[in-house]
Structures are given as structure tokens and as C-alpha cells.
Amino acid sequence: DAMVIQNPRYQVTQFGKPVTLSCSQTLNHNVMYWYQQKSSQAPKLLFHYYDKDFNNEADTPDNFQSRRPNTSFCFLDIRSPGLGDAAMYLCATSTARQGMGTEAFFGQGTRLTVV
Amino acid sequence: GQNIDQPTEMTATEGAIVQINCTYQTSGFNGLFWYQQHAGEAPTFLSYNVLDGLEEKGRFSSFLSRSKGYSYLLLKELQMKDSASYLCAARFSGGYNKLIFGAGTRLAVHP
Asked: What order do you get walking across the sheet with B53-57 strand by strand?
């Protein structure tokens, strides 16, 4: 059973047209992450939440926003997608504890195409 | 910064052993993870180290030296299906379990 679910798997959007990607989890994890991954590159952390506390990476463009209305759901909003925003977007969750069993669990990702 | 460095590509033969190295900056470090990622798929968790030493899990083992900021992933009895990218990721204590990934090592296993 999928524990971190991302919808849709594939998203095509027009240049400049706002788009929202969604992520839900059944693990009740405190921490949720959004990563952007381009071909053959590292997943790049955009931001993460601890409960409702939002942590933005310094180099995340203002074009990217996020919402977490409750523990289970998190959204990534791209206000004006450019061609350079085409990528795989990965959502992940983890507990806030330390130690074994604290790995991040990933969703299947949403592959975004900008036309 | 929190740079994570690992080799870009490696090749190995089916049945052999391969070691993939990873170095990271030690400031704020509190855990090292290895993930496997096949092309077009999400990363899947392989191993976790927070204390110095070796963690063994079947054909895969992972080692950590905190003082050196160094880890490796050891894959034994390589199979063709092990051809994938292997991502080293370090957790840092600032910002609630901030998890930063290296660029990944693409491993190609040949017959």
C-alpha cells in the first residue's frame, strides 16, 4: 500500500500558467519535504515542513510556494512555470526523531513538463 | 554549505563487489542515508548510519566515519538489477531534519 502518494504522476502545463502538485501521506509523519530533480542530478531540496513550521531553502525561487493544510497533505504551487522548471518533483516524509527507522519515504514523483 | 560528494559513474561485473564512496561536511551532521534510484522512479531506502562503523543488510553494507565525514556503500554479489543510481544523503540538525542529497553514482553492472 502506497504510504506517500503524489498526484498526478505526469503533469503538462503551459509556460506561465500556475500549476499545483499534491502529496498526501498515511504515515502521520511530522516532516514533509519537496525536492526538485532534473535529469542525472541530485534531488534538490526546495523546502520542508516540521508540522506547520515552514523552512524555505535560501536558493529556492520565489516562484515556488508551498502549503500544508494538515499533517496528511502538502502542496507545491508553481506560480509561473518556466521551461527551466521542467523536472521530477519528489515529495518525501519522515519522523522528527533521530535513530533507526527515521529514513525519508518518497512518493512516486510528479514529472512536470512545461510547454 | 552542506556539500555531499560522490563519484558520478562506476561500472562493475555481475557477481563482483563494488564500493561507492561519499564525503560530506560534518557541521551539524546527524545521520547518513543511502538510497537506490532507478531511472524515472523515486528513491528507495537502502541503509542508515549515525554511529561509526559498518551496518550490514544482506548483500548491501554501509560504513560511516563521523570524524572523517566519510561513508561508503558496499554491494556484494552484484546482479544486473543493481544497475541504478545510488544516492548518498546526509541529515543535518538545522531546520528539523533537513535531508540533503548528493548527485548520485550511476552504477552499470555488466555480464
From this structure: B4-5, B18-24, B70-75, B60-65, B53-57
CB contact under 8 A, A42 and B104: yes
- B48/A102 Cβ within 8 A: yes
Kindly report which listed range (A53-57, A84-88, B93-97) carries the lowest average pLDDT score.
B93-97
Residue range B57-72: mean pLDDT, rounded = 95
Q: At which residue does the C-alpha cell 515542513 appear?
A: A49
Give the mutation candidate from B101, B105, B106, B107 for the A interface (greatest A CB count, under 10 A): B101
Please give the full DSSP string across A82-103, using - where no structure is assigned.
Answer: -GGG-EEEEEEEE-S--STT--
Question: Residues A34-55: what's their mean pLDDT?
Answer: 92
For the ranges B78-87, B88-97, B100-109, the lowest mean pLDDT is seen at: B88-97
Query: Does position A88 have pLDDT exceeding 90, yes or no?
Result: yes
CA–CA separation, B14 and B109 (whole Å): 6
Contacts of A41 in chain B (CB under 8 A): 103
Find, among A92, A50, A85, A56, the residue nearest to A68 by Cα: A50
Which residue(s) pair with A112 in the sheet? Answer: A11, A87
**Touching check for A102 and chain B: CB below 8 Å?**
yes
Residue of B nearest to A43 (CA): B101
Place B94 in a pLDDT band, splitting at 50, 70 and 90.
low
Indicate yes or no: CB of A104 within 8 angstroms of CB of B96. Answer: no
